[in-house]
Design brief:
Blueprint: E1 12-21, H1 33-40, E2 44-54
Antiparallel strand pairs: 1-2
């Protein structure tokens, strides 16, 4: 789901987890969170968090 704050409600913060795996992750279909976590477990070279603010006026 994309960021979708209510109009005029002020800024909302969104946090995105970012991972750098040591191999390509191939999925037969768009994966859910559980499938991604299972695929990267033991294969993360680096990780970070990107926090952004978004406001709909």
């Amino acid at each position: 789901m994309p960021p979708d704050p209510p109009t005029g409600h002020g800024p909302h913060l969104y946090a995105f987890q970012i991972f750098a795996p040591d191999r390509r992750l191939d999925f037969d279909h768009p994966p859910g969170r559980k499938a991604v976590v299972e695929a990267v477990t033991g294969h993360v070279l680096a990780k970070g968090v990107l926090v952004g603010a978004y406001e709909r006026v």
